[in-house]
Give the backbone structure.
Amino acid sequence: MKVCSNTGPPSWRKASIYGVMHAIQVDSVQRWMEDLRHMTEVECMCVLQSKPIGVDEDAAQGEFIVTGSVHITRDNLQALLKRALVVSTELGKMFQRLEKGQWQRVHSTAVRANCHVRSLVHEYGDKINNSKLCLLIILYGSRCLNNEDEYFLKFMKEAIHKILTDVSDSFSQMIDMALANEIQVLIRQIETSDSVYTIGSAISNLLSLTEDGPQLCSIIAKEGGVVALFKICRQDCFSSLYAHALRTVASICCVEEGINQLEKVDGILCLADILTDEACAEAARAEAAAVVAQITSPHHSSTQHLVSFLESMQDIVTALIKLCESASCGEVFLLASAALANITFFDSMACEMLLQLNAIHILLQACRDRQRVDTPYSKDQVVTIMANLSVLEQAVSEVLQEKGVERLLLLLDEKPSSSSLSEVAACERVQQKAAVTLARLSRDPDVAQTAVQLHAIPRLIELCRSPAERNNSDSVLVACLAALRRLAAGCPDSIEASDHQQLIRPRLVDSFLLCSNMEESFV
């Protein structure tokens, strides 16, 4: 790279002087500043760190300079992500301004982006020539300044757009490689250190990275993060780190790469060992339950890992229902019940196991204990399990014995305590699944009769007719209509003629359309 000579005016100053000589009736200093910003030689500008004399509206936001050496700490890892965000933001601005033909802004934004990219390249290396591509954009952009040739501008616009796309793609790869290098150091610390403090610190850094999105989780998994964490969970001397390590594993397993790595190291067997070891701390068993909940989530497209899971399912299900029974707080119960809820979706054998383990009694008892079941999220897990168990004939007698119908009607009254969207959604799921469970159980005449005696029908009608009662949820409406029709089939005299005419007699879709278009003032 060239360095400006100390003797004679440097080239960037020469360019400015020539601009002033041709200016007529224009303030010389102002023209000098404009020329300095837009008509400089690219290479000299990089030497000067691309600092414009005047600050445009975006320059202040774009500045992000990190000094000092890069250490493997949470702050520095976050700093790398912030610096990457700055460059990504600048690239996004260039795309927008290129489309609008704002050539001066394209040029100035490219200068700033180039400065940031060069700084990152200097620290992390660049195998993809990001900086050279940025220089091309600056060069092409400078040629478009004050040029009104439409054909030329169209050609340059297409050329810059292609280069900009290449820069964006290669920059993402460069950041991924830089993060992978930092993550490798953290993983080596976990694998080689004997210090609980050092390992715990490295795990904390990994956990903080997982909070920045699935892309980072994929990088951690590919670099062996799951393997290293399970090595910790298999050593008694690090038992104090089990909960922390497993929480990180659960976060990484939000992506398929994490689950695949868990399968390769027999992670499910390790989870089963921790869950069934009652001498193990409750926090560690709760986090093991969280990993089970994560890898059995219906949202995952791949279910290959479930093959080995089935081999340990009896032990895991037994340990999870015991954890629900003994949970000391709502969070522990939530994690254990969420794992059970997911398990009941993919194998009917799990439902039969739960019935043999007296799960209905345990779960309904927990619902009466506000220390364990204190949020709509926990109730959502309980009613999910109940809905899946209600498919089995033998579940009916247990639900009646444990006063489960009464509990289902209470769940139909579930309302959010705040305006939180997640809580509102959880309440809708609770109402919907409670209605589904009631409909399934009401195939038994005794359950239908009990539900009618407990005034289930007026509540179901209210949910159908009043959108506010169901938070305008269509899924709750459909479930309540289905439950009403099942009860009406078993107890036809329990529904008034007008309700029968509108909610029972028509096709389900017609009743749905009628209720979904109702205003609350109708009630």
Summary: Confidence is low (pLDDT under 50) at residues 1-26, 37-72.
